[in-house]
Amino acid sequence: MKKKAALENVVNADLAKNNPSKEKPEKGKLRENIEAIIIAIILALFIRTFIVQAFKIPSGSMIPTLLVGDHILVSKFIYGVKIPYLNMTIIPGADPKYDDIVVFEYPKDPQKDYIKRVVGLPGDIVEIKNKQVYINQNKVEDIHAYFDDEINSPLLNRPRDNYGPVKVPENSIFVMGDNRDHSYDSRFWGFVGMDALKGKAFIVYFSWDTSAFDWTFSDFFNIKVRWNRLGHLLK
């Protein structure tokens, strides 16, 4: 009998080891849900900070490439991984290139984000003559530039239509909106430092036309989704 009792004790001990759930109480459903929510929030913050971030286009400075009401995704790591709020690069990335559509902190007010196209790189001589861009004295064939004002007044529209020449400083870029007659950009407030870059825009994931939307309940059902722009890759 003693041998049988000892054998049962050994068997019970092995079962306890292989089935620890009987030893420890299961987590409550509320605790599991809270943990899942916390993990989801941490992952979302990590993705938003270091990988990709969503932005909404509020103005027409990039027409026709970007329209008011476009919602875009911006690659945050392409120009390097930075520590938030310090703008300190911890993992270097690629350098901006001509025609990149970039999001950056507005130099006059870092709390605001602007989006423009890269026109000049460090060391370039930028000049605009009668709305035509010249880089290092070479005429730029800019297929993205859009104009709706045929008037060119060297006095009234300077520096919109006539600018420079100026040299882009090191660690800086010269940016312009595609809607050249209606864009507040480097022609007016200067260069963008590399440390102010937030990322490169690469896709329109949603778009709606709010031009005739007055934010009333009845107008909510008249929202016009631009279905043809969903998934539109930016160039």
Overall description:
The protein is α+β, with helices and mostly antiparallel strands and 235 residues long. It has a single domain (54-233), classed as Umud Fragment, subunit A. Helices cover 19% and strands 33% of the residues. The strands form three sheets. Strands 1, 2, 5, 6, 11, 12, 13, 14 and 15 form a nine-stranded antiparallel sheet that branches. It has a four-stranded antiparallel sheet with strand order 9-8-7-10, with no helix packed on it. A two-stranded antiparallel ribbon has the order 3-4. A hairpin with a 2-residue loop joins strand 5 and strand 6 (109-120). The longest helix is centred in the first third of the chain and has 23 residues, at 29-51. The termini are far apart.
Mean pLDDT across the residues is 83
Strand content: 25-35%
From the spread of the alpha carbons, the general shape counts as globular
Largest sheet: 9 strands, antiparallel
Q: Which blocks of ≥5 consecutive residues have pLDDT under 50?
A: 1-8
Secondary structural class:
alpha+beta
CATH class: Mainly Beta
- What is the subunit arrangement here? single chain
The total count of strands amounts to 15
* CATH topology category name: Umud Fragment, subunit A
| CATH architecture descriptor name | Ribbon
* Helix content bin: 10-25%
Q: What is the succession of H and E elements? A: HHEEEEEEEEEEEHEEEE
Spatial separation of the terminal alpha carbons: 84 Å
Number of domains: 1
Count of alpha and pi helical runs: 3
What would CATH call the homologous superfamily? Answer: Umud Fragment, subunit A
Query: Measured on Cα atoms, how large is the radius of gyration?
Result: 28 Å
